[in-house]
Please model this.
Amino acid sequence: MENEFSRNNQPLPLTPDNAKKRWMTRRRSEIIFVIFMLLLPLIQFAVFWLVPNFDSIVMGFRNASGSFTLENFRKFFTDLTQNDELGRQNELVYSIVNSLIYFAVNIFVCTPIVVFFSYILYRKVPLNGVFKVVFYLPSIIGGTVMATLYKKLLDSKGPLFQLMNSWGWISKEVAQRGLFAHGNTAFLMVVLYSIWTCVGINMIMFHGAMKRIPNEIFESADIDGVGFFKQFTDIVVPLIWPTVSTLVVFSLAGIFVTYGPVMILAPDKKEASMIGWFILSRVNQGSNLNYPAAVGLIFTAVGLPFVLLVRYLLNKIGDSVEY
Amino acid sequence: MIKENLIVLSRDTKITNKKTSFKTWSRNWKKKTKSERVTLWIMLVVFLIYGFTLMFPLYWAVINSFKPVAEYKANSFAWPSVWTLENYQELFEMMETSTSNIFEAIWNSVWMSTVSTLLGLIASSLTAYVVSKYRFKMSGFIYAAVILIQVIPLVGSITGMYQLVWRTLEIGDKPLLIWPIWFGGFGFSFLLLYSAFKSVPWSYAESAFIDGAGHFKTFVRIMLPQVKPVLASLFVVNFIGAWNDYMTAYLYLPSHQTLALAVYELQNDASRISVPAYLAVVVISIAPILILFVSFQKIIMENTNAGGLKG
Model:
């Protein structure tokens, strides 16, 4: 601003030279401002995002003495193909299979349920305002509390477990150890928990997307005699498809890093393990970070093309519609 | 007097609004086809059952946290015959002997949630504003990179982070030095603030420049207030997220137990704590966020709605 006026506060004549000088000054101050604003966040990003991620790649190729090795990757493939010392399937195999099952349940069970629930709320089921709050509550209260209460109610001393046991719903073998401690049921309990609490925040997202659909579309569908379910499958789902596909991609990106439910519900059962917990439990032991780093690297390498492929397929299935 | 009239008037207006909205609802309900009404009634039953399953554990936790242990063991579903604080007392005494007492845990939760939320929002505001409003070579790249980061499944990064905190920087368990971890400006808040700043007309800033304001003053005094509603809702949502986060304290500040970490760590500690006393810590940990949720419910739900992704 200073350069636009001469010393006696008279505007400078707008010659090409002055205009250029003024533009240069403004541009310079803009650049300084941009650097000033971005400097600290970029340093933070470099130190706490780039360095750890780069380091985790390097660690994958190191042994305990710090020298370069492929030992961690060899161990990964040994764990993958061989049973443990007691001849049972290795935890890594369980972790991979369970992570994929968890993802499949998320996509093919949870997502359709949430989209349909959101549609029902959108069509103004009685008490819809109350339901929105109640269904959203688990997201507010947090996974730790919800999961621990679920466990307290259903573990071997829990009142619901004892009730079900007294009705004869639980086999003797499971009843002796409890639903979370028995190899056959521990992961099932994790999956049931994830279905139980999946509505929450995604419902609000889908509901928001449905609210953006112009009302005239439904009015003309009503006039044309399009039924309630047909409107759902032929109008709502295609129109909110971008939201559906984006949330699916996000949940897929988190599939190998999910650890919360296993960590709380069945941390000691290898039959219930998932990749995220497999890595985290080893990190927390703190002694050897190189092997979990190598496992993480492998699943990032596998996961990234998988995420991109799913995103591509989802975009293929439903074209983005402007409305 | 005027104030009292206003209060009555506003109360009456609310009642009238409620009546109107019920009338509208019933008019719309009658317009629905028979099959739609039947479906909605069936779904109402499904929703009631599902809603009950979500609310029941909370109800169970609250009543049992105020019930004598013997009564809990006899019938944990029954309404307490005597309301007692003995479980809370047991919890306080037990935690006195552990790494942090209950008041330290509450304090740790409060300061960690507040500091992490504020730092995250400050950093996100700085980055979102310049990336959305200033044209420079890296702006498009930064925006694309932030979206990409959300999608890349970085599975092993926790090993690198653990190494960085405990071995390279040696800031583990040092609360004052751990603050920079929270100054992240390229997360989900960035995306929301980016679109919020995008929708603010640049002419506001231009007017400020003409009046002699510099870039930073324009940002703080003119542009930031325009996105205040988004900032407020992000603060509430992020604060709740931070309150529930037990992982940061678990991995990087193990001697500074938060309420969320106490809920996690005490769950399997049957030798040290009874179930009703454990439920007391659950109630203490969720009470503040429930109050926050009830007070800012509209803001929270609308913010999540506003964040509704469009692909």
Notes: Chain B touches chain A through 90 residues (CB under 8 Å).
